[in-house]
Amino acid sequence: MSMTFQLTILGSGSATPLLGRHPTAQLLEIDSDYFLVDCGEGTQFRLLEQRIRPGRLRYIFISHLHGDHYFGLAPLLSSLNLAGRTEELYLFGPAGLLEILTVQFRHSDTRLGYPLHFQPVEPGRPGPILDLPQLTVESIPLEHRIDCSGYLFREKPRKRKLIKEKLPADMPIDYLRRLKDGQDIVDEAGNVLFRTDDYSLPAPPPRSYAFCSDTRYTEKFLQQIAGISLLYHETTFLDDQLARAGEVFHATARQAATLATKAGVQQLLIGHFSSRYKQTEGFLEEARSVFPETYLATEGHTFPVGSAAL
Ligand SMILES: [Zn+2]
Ligand SMILES: [Zn+2]
Fold it and tell me: Would you please indicate which residues are annotated as catalytic (active-site) residues?
């Protein structure tokens, strides 16, 4: 039984609108939980287009308060209310976010019929913000013009896989559980009855995904993302705009690829393309010249995290 861990890109654009490209939003599906990462304008329509039921959302993470990363949030929360939601919703983001939503809801006399739990994310300080049975989430300190945090989703180690054909039919449930946990079954005299290596296969390595948008090039969080399965890093510009990128606290495709190389990540996903670039092939070419395992965050595509072929 393999657990789902996949990422669907809803928006790959940046602040200036461009037809055919939408502002940042991504949906991460882990096990059967939905995690929305950023919520640019129109995200609820993007979810509908992808046939993802917004009612299944339970956790929302907002990186920062530039509009292209959260202008879709109040509409989405309102629509969930209209749909009669009663389940709890967990929202993570900069402290100012709650203030903004409160004003919007107060002046429209909107009273949410579901509990909205807001947890402010402290900028500049990496650390765990959510602990679930199947995964943990950490914040990543990014360097942008305003406070901005990335998010790192780490799967917890999975259990070993039993080799069904080898198992005696009458094996007690407790033995099965212990074999899956990697323990040998030993009798009272200390004799090994069943060796976990003989009856189960090692668990696949835990998968991990880091979302880094928006930021200028920095190696501040290099250790935190070392060796992860998939890194999403913004690439607003190509290297021809290197100086401009630094001035406005954004990164180039070459810089994102350099970071991916230094951090030893398995794969790199790039997005948040400036509207000055009508085509995105240049981003892929530039990044792959440094880090071959780079992919474009193409809208509507679903990427299986930790899989050899994206
Ligand atoms: Zn942005
Ligand atoms: Zn921004």
Answer: 68
Q: What are phi and psi of 133, to 5 degrees?
A: -55, -35
In degrees, to the nearest 5, what angle opens at C-alpha 97 toward C-alphas 92 and 99?
A: 130
Q: Give the Å distances, CA to CA, from 55 to 7, 50, 133.
A: 18, 14, 21
Percent of the chain with pLDDT over 90: 95
pTM exceeding 0.85: yes
Cα distance between residue 133 and residue 139, in whole Å: 18
Compute, in angstroms, the gap from residue 214 CA to the centroid of ligand 2: 5
CB neighbourhood size of 210 (10 A): 23
Nearest to 194 by CA among 163, 216, 227, 218: 163
The per-residue pLDDT for range 5-36, each reduced to its tens digit, is 999 999 999 999 999 999 999 999 999 899 99
| Residue 66 alpha carbon to ligand 2 centre in Å | 5
